[in-house]
Amino acid sequence: RGWIEGLVMARAGSGDRPSADRISLLRDGDGDGTAETKTVFLSGLTSPFGMALVGETLYVANADAVVKVPYRTGQTRIEAAPVKVADLPAGRNHHWTKSLIASADGTKLYVGVGSNSNIGENGLDEEVDRAAILEIDVATGARRVFASGLRNPVGLAWNPQDGRLWTSVNERDALGNDLVPDYMTSVTPGGFYGWPWSYYGQTLDERVKPARPDMVARAIRPDYALGSHTASLGLTFYTGDLLPQWRNGAIIGQHGSWNRNPPSGYKVIFVPSRDGRPDGPPQDVLTGFRNQQGEAMGRPVGVAMDGRGALLVADDVGDAVWRVTPAAR
Fold first, then answer.
1. Peptide linkage before 210 cis (omega within 30 of 0)
2. What percent of the chain is predicted at pLDDT more than 70?
3. Which tens digits make up the pLDDT trace of 145-155?
4. Beta bridge partners of 27
5. Most buried among 105, 124, 151, 295, by the most CB within 10 A?
6. What is the DSSP code (8-state) at residue 319?
7. pLDDT digits (tens, 9 = 90+) for 216-264
8. In DSSP terms, which residues pair with 136 in a beta bridge?
9. pLDDT for 261
């Protein structure tokens, strides 16, 4: 099964490539929409994924720890050695990415940590502080589980309308083409969202033994389904003026399925919002990441807004960062 999965994932553009263990700086100094400065910004890391800049401190979520380095505006390379803030669950790393976001006052960090399995088949002793969003106190490095039962909470973003933390979550596999939907949801402090015993609230996954009806009864139903196997990764709320039709809504990068026929995802979508809640069906923002032969020419991951309000989309198969602006008139 593992060999077959590897073959299918390679066709989907998911072939394993070693991490460069560094952060690259891309800077558009003249404002023409293209980065003319490209440098190795910080090296010597361990599969870095999440980043958060708080004042003059850059926090980085490695696969095994959150670290920090000093940063000055305009800097093109950081030579200082990273200092550990807090350890993170590592090990098998079924899901190795660690997303990262800071609180508005910069005193807390929130880290998305995926599960070490599909449905806990490696044993729940391997899932301690995983399938969860962790909260880290910046001053002390102390960490606690902020919310749990989230199989792989990759995207993290603050909703500008209600100030709550939201996450995009990759759900479980091997239940067919149309189960289980990935989703985005507001995050309730101390909340439990079902994994591994149930999905999309209190729908029982009978494969998980022993059963835990007490945990299923606690499971919170997420706010918005994003489609099964779409691999919805990046999440941001648009707050700029350049693309006003998206203001306050969610932008999601859907990396795309490797185990669904027909494939799903492989696009960037917009979800409108009203009063801090999803309000209406998703709308396509960027498509065309697969060619006529079904091969992935690109796969969206991270989404972010630049300083002028354009949308940036990181593509880890096309090895590109796309910049989305209004169409020329």
1. yes
2. 94
3. 999 999 999 99
4. 37
5. 151
6. T
7. 999 999 999 999 999 999 999 999 999 999 999 999 999 988 887 888 7
8. 109, 143
9. 80
Q: At residue 125, what are phi and psi to the nearest 5 degrees?
A: -70, -20
Average pLDDT value over all residues in the chain: 92
- Give me the pLDDT at residue 329, please: 56
Distances (CA, A) of 173 to 196, 258, 260: 11, 10, 10
DSSP letters for 193-260: --TTTEETTTEE-TTSSS--HHHHHHPPPPSEEEEET--EEEEEE---SSSGGGTT-EEEEE---SS-
Q: Tally DSSP H helices, then E strands, for the chain.
A: 2, 25
The full set of domain ranges for the chain reads 2-324
Distance CA 9, CA 14 (A): 5
What pTM value is reported for the model?
0.93
State residue 10's pLDDT score. 45
Any idea which fold 2-324 has? Neuraminidase (2.120.10)
Q: Are 177 and 169 in contact (CB under 8 A)?
A: no
Angle, CA of 33, 34 and 35, to the nearest 5°: 125
Strands (E), 43-107: 50-54, 57-61, 65-70, 83-87, 98-102
Among residues 161, 31, 169, the alpha carbon closest in space to that of 99 is found at: 169
Examine residue 60 and say whether the peptide bond preceding it is cis (omega within 30 degrees of 0): no
d(CA 226, CA 254): 9
Terminal CA-CA length for the chain? 51
